[in-house]
Design goal:
The complex is a heterodimer of chains A (693) and B (235). Chain A is 28% helix and 33% strand. Chain A has 693 residues and is an alpha+beta fold. Chain B has a single domain, classed as Rossmann fold (3-Layer(aba) Sandwich), CATH 3.40.50.
């Protein structure tokens, strides 16, 4: 039986860390009868929340990997991706948003729009994801959903409109008023599973009227029919919902819902809202690249009868092999079908097709366009496109940030070495922001990632899941080098050691490049360097860029121009010109006044106002540049730019400085030259390490 | 152009030294104009000039976000650096960032005790000691004379310059004896320097009229021109 795509929703749940995403997902699974008991994230029963299936996640109380799950709510199939809140795992959030049609943005009713909410919202904007907001934790002291709605407008520039009014707040929260039906909703029973509809309490009737006016004003912008009905005083709930839906899908309106997942309040109306207001797979335009037409972009049809186009957006190593999460964009994926990986042209047969429910699964025979399912035993990388054999299509690539931190890992014995290789092979496939390489000089394995926690989690997973015991080096910042002025070079590479010799002369100059990492310009006239050796020069320069002379860091931002040279009829070769270019680069490099650059992180520290001075002091001590402070009720947010090298161990410092009341997030901002004193230290250290080797 | 030339050639120079050439250590200044004429742009230029002269400033933004305020600085500095072909602009920009701090307040919660508390946090812990305070978005329409006098006293206690912006309205024709429009017409005595931005329809650009200056730097009635696009003071 074919699935009605109008009754499918692919949604993500994303928010700032500790806003209660996983708790909310747990309630959703309970109310949709996917699970039969609620377990808290840090619950006393020790079971842990359903979506936090990794041991480490349960232990730390944070979601590291987003798990996909599926549920049914009022005849609608909902695929949910629970996404991590920590900024180090941003790629997970980005990937989820890439394949989703809509999202629920969760906010804490006390914390409001926090730094990570801004990042997540920016990501949603990038992928044009329609969203609804859920203001959670309304049972907490200091809860103020109205203020949070204001912040959605001011800080996130969303046209946020409340569709509910709380009946009581903090410890007195009893339920919500639905402004569409103008009914009070109370959540009764042991787990809030019974919804009792009642009249609006008199005490808040006036407020509800005002809020409904606001809602009708905002919604009628998207429907002439509703506008007329409002003027005549006869708007129906259907009309309002239709208008809100239009506004939400066009990204011009953000409906706001409130509740407390922990206290089992407001979750079911939020699920209704997913069905009412978030788009079906056919309402979102997704594009793919036609590889047979020079990567021409086209919109996928969403038609289950068309040739298959599907995207592998997440890999997981399960007990029975690799599990590949797939979003089907067009056509139907069937068990037993042969599909093609458009990256390498390899054909694969679909052996087992499953629908995931956190770490459990159910076998299915087919998945039509719009569905999110998982495949078993398919060897592929995250981001690969699978198609029917008769078409050559790729989904557009995803934005992948470059890693900023690295550390060395050394297995303790041979067994650990084998296990570590297995783990690295899997993790690098699963997560494009986690990379690994072997340092040619030290022979050490280096892993790179987006932050301390990011690497820490992978190392922990290698130890636990793969039993790979290893020695872990201190985290190292990925420095870069660049030049600050133009410098000429004129280098001749000459070697005569019997047999045919090597000869090549390369002359030109290098200069700082404003944008981009490297540019090669060939200004050779008169054939002083033969045509066939021009690419050799380019190759030589690129090799020279790999390790700078100051700290052995990668060199960025250089334009190399060649304008003269010489060759020999017999002794010139590809390698001779590569070596000449390397020599020329080295000659010019020190004259071009090179500097070391370090990654600068955008840091946001949120804490009670009384700790503002201390927080700022701690940032100043870390060579941080304070951009400013914003007032958020009784909290202050300090925003700063701080070198990554100074941020190691900051969470511990911050915790003791603020009695654990402040928290911080950071993300990569830019590369900037390091101060002279620090540069000298780095050079000294690099030299010492080189000598040691 | 070098940084020192940029400082020397800044038209705002006429405002920063008294008749004997001494810098003004304490001053309460006001830039008043109707909405949309460029008050924030003028305040940012005053701040940038102060920073370039090695002073530290705090930009208090009331009701505006931190990012939005930062963009004002980025854009205006970029315009100035491009127009003056400033050498080593990246280093100067970094210096500006180190000498500038933005503080945002909600409109309803801004008052002297709150401001003083947040300033003291920085000064007493030796984190940051401002020489100049820019207060943008202060609501003069609802402010009391006492409230403003209180802020003047804070300026005296902390020994710094404070510059305010104020919005005047076309329909409110009240003016003080020296020509300061409402809502600041009856508090003009609390300010040392008052400037008004006025559109000059004849020449197609806005003018910055100096209505009052009791510091002895500049004669009232002096006028500076503003670039119609970038709002940069042209002298």
């Amino acid at each position: 039986m074919k699935k009605d795509l109008n009754r499918v929703r692919n949604i993500g749940i994303s928010a700032h860390i500790d806003s209660g995403k996983t708790t909310l997902t747990e309630r959703i699974l309970f109310y949709t009868q996917r699970i039969h008991a609620i377990h808290e994230v840090r619950g006393k029963d020790g079971v842990g929340a359903k979506m936090d299936s990794m041991e480490l996640e349960k232990e730390r109380g944070i979601t590291i990997q987003s798990a996909a799950t599926y549920c049914t709510w009022k005849d609608h199939n909902i695929n949910i991706i629970d996404t991590p809140g920590h900024v180090d795992f941003t790629i997970e959030v980005e990937r989820a948003l890439r394949v989703l049609d809509g999202a629920v943005l969760i906010l804490c009713s006390v914390g409001g729009v926090q730094s990570q909410s801004i990042t997540v919202n920016r990501q949603m904007d990038r992928y044009k994801v329609p969203r609804i907001a859920f203001i959670n934790k309304c049972d907490r002291t200091g809860a103020n959903p109205e203020r949070v709605t204001g912040q959605l407008r001011e800080k996130l520039k969303l046209n946020a409109v409340m569709l509910q009014v709380p009946i009581g707040l903090e410890g007195d929260m009893k339920g919500v008023v639905d402004l569409v039906t103008m009914k009070a909703l109370y959540f009764e029973g042991d787990n809030g599973e019974t919804i009792r509809e009642a009249e609006i309490p008199a005490a808040i009737a006036a407020e509800c009227e005002t809020r409904r006016e606001e809602l009708l004003d905002a919604a009628s912008m998207f429907s002439d029919e509703l506008m007329e009905a409002v003027l005549e005083g006869t708007p129906t709930p259907e009309m309002i919902r239709e208008a809100v839906r239009k506004g939400t899908i066009s990204l011009e309106l953000t409906p706001v819902f409130i509740g407390s997942a922990y206290k089992n309040k407001g979750v079911q109306p939020m699920l209704d809202a997913v069905n009412y207001y978030l788009p079906t797979p056919t309402e979102v335009e997704n594009t793919a690249l036609d590889l047979s037409k020079d990567e021409e972009q086209f919109a996928v049809s969403n038609n289950p009868d068309d040739p298959l186009i599907a995207l592998a957006f997440k890999l997981e190593e399960g007990r029975y092999g690799q599990l590949t999460y797939i979003r089907v964009y067009q056509g139907t994926m069937r068990k037993g079908d042969t599909i093609v990986n458009s990256r390498d042209g390899r054909k694969v047969k679909i052996g087992r097709l499953v629908r995931m429910h956190s770490d459990e699964m159910e076998d299915i025979d087919e998945a039509p366009a719009g569905d999110i399912v998982a495949l078993f035993g398919i060897d592929c990388a995250s981001g690969d496109t699978f198609t029917s054999p008769d078409i050559s299509v790729s989904m557009s690539s995803m934005h992948v940030p470059a890693p900023v931190i690295s550390l060395s890992i050394k297995p303790v014995d041979n067994k650990a070495q084998v296990n570590m290789s297995k783990a690295l092979n899997r993790f690098t496939k699963e997560d494009p922001t986690f990379r690994t390489y072997v340092d040619a000089e030290t022979n050490e394995t280096i892993v790179c990632g987006m932050g301390e926690l990011h690497l820490e989690v992978y190392i922990e997973r290698m130890k636990r899941e793969y039993k790979a015991e290893m020695e872990v080096g201190a985290p190292q910042v990925s420095y870069r080098e660049t030049i600050t002025q133009r410098a000429d070079f004129n280098y001749t590479h000459k070697k005569q050691t019997g047999g045919s010799g090597q000869f090549g002369r390369v002359a030109g100059y290098m200069e700082p490049l404003e944008e981009g990492n490297y540019e090669f310009v060939d200004n050779i006239v008169g054939g002083t360097i033969p045509r066939e050796y021009i690419p050799s020069c380019d190759k030589g320069f690129q090799k020279a860029l790999e390790k700078g002379a100051l700290a052995g860091a990668q060199i960025n931002g250089v334009r190399c121009v060649i304008n003269d040279g010489a060759s020999h009829a017999v002794d010139s070769s590809d390698i001779a010109f590569q070596l000449a270019a390397i020599g020329g680069f080295k000659e010019g490099y020190m004259k071009a006044k090179p500097v070391i650059m370090e990654p600068i992180m955008k840091v946001a520290v949120e804490g009670p106002t009384e700790f503002q001075g201390g927080i700022m002091g701690s940032i100043n001590q870390r060579r941080g540049m304070i951009i400013g402070t914003s007032e958020e009720g009784t909290y202050t947010v300090v925003e700063a730019e701080v070198p990554l090298s100074e941020m190691f161990g900051y969470s511990t410092v911050l915790r003791s400085l603020t009695q654990g009341k402040a928290e911080f997030t950071m993300e990569f901002a830019t590369y900037r030259p390091v101060p002279k004193g620090v540069a000298e230290e780095i050079i000294k250290k690099a030299k010492a390490e080189k000598d040691k080797k | 152009m070098l940084k020192k030339d940029l400082i020397a050639k800044n038209p705002l120079r006429i405002l920063t030294q008294d008749a004997k050439g001494n810098p003004i250590a304490q001053r309460m200044g006001l830039v008043i104009a109707r909405a949309g004429l460029g008050k924030t742009a003028i305040l940012v230029q005053i701040a940038l000039d102060s920073i370039l002269r090695d002073n530290k400033i705090i930009h208090v933004s009331i009701g505006q976000s931190l990012d939005k305020t930062r963009v004002w600085y980025d854009d205006i500095f970029k315009d100035i650096a491009t127009a003056s072909q400033l050498e080593n602009a990246a280093a100067v920009e970094e210096e500006i960032m180190r000498h500038r701090m933005i503080m945002t307040f909600n409109v309803s919660s801004f008052n002297r005790p709150k401001l003083e508390e947040r300033l003291n946090d920085l000064v007493q812990q030796d984190v940051y000691r401002p020489d100049c305070l820019i207060i943008d978005g202060f609501d003069f329409a609802t402010a009391t004379r006492e409230g403003l006098a209180d802020l003047r006293e804070l300026m005296e206690v902390m020994g710094m310059n404070i510059w305010f912006s104020a919005v005047s309205h076309r329909e409110d024709d009240r003016v003080s004896a020296i020509g300061v429009p409402a809502p600041c017409h009856d508090v003009d005595d609390l300010f040392d320097t008052i400037m008004q931005i006025q559109p000059d329809t004849e020449h197609g650009h806005n003018k910055l009229n100096i209505l009052k200056d009791s510091t002895g730097c500049v004669a009232p009635g002096t006028t500076l021109n503003l670039d119609p696009v970038s709002l940069i003071i042209q002298g």
